[in-house]
Please model this.
Amino acid sequence: MLLLEARYARETTRQAEHIMEKAQGRRVAVTGAASGIGAATAHKLMSDGWRVACLDRHIEGAKATAGGSGIAIPIDVADEASTVAAFATVRDAFGGLDGLVTAAGVIETTPFLDTTVEQFRRLFDINVIGSFLSVREGAKLMRPGSRICLVASISSYTGGGYVAAGAYATSKGAVLTMMKSCARALGDRGIAVNAIAPGFIDTPFVASAMSDPVRRAQVVAAVGKVGKAEQIAEAATWLISPSADFVHGSTLIVDGGILMH
Model:
């Protein structure tokens, strides 16, 4: 009996030490974590030792991303009440945040003259309002030294093309402008805000637009090469890390050289 009690005590101590060690890790929330860039970023952060909250509307996908290392929280970023509740759950679980990556978003490929107001508003509700709400609620949980990375697109610069149409590009252009506004508003609080602008990335995000092999071949020929979500995750992870502590209010373009041409 004494042997069992001693063994239990040692095991309990090891578990407590592990929990304390994990609690000392930096805390981050990733929206859109069920797939694509969000999932790749969450995986990268977990592998680096971050405590990761995986937020997504598709909770089963978020759970799959979180695995046994992170936590999964349902969120509809376009809904204020849902976003407030999700970040309240993050606060209860982590006690605060040291980083935030807003990877939740949708794409629209409808040609400009065929785009409806409903489609346009949906893009802004999710891509723009969703990013705003996530930053607003996430920043409330942050202390000086925390960092935020918004996910925009090179469409912010090109106005569309390749796969995305003008309405999508407009929404992502708004994300870049909002990033600068957030950087000004939160800089005095010691919170850094930046963005990444990915090029053409092979993720479920654009899968429907690329289901036609002829269209895919045209896009690949135009851009030269297609990026992977893991490559964007490396950039996002760096931007919210202490290594980027002198980067603020900036956009990191990760497009394989598309804009250069």
The first helix runs from residue 2 to 23. Residues 53 and 237 are 14 Å apart (CA to CA). Residues 15-24 have pLDDT under 50 and may be disordered.
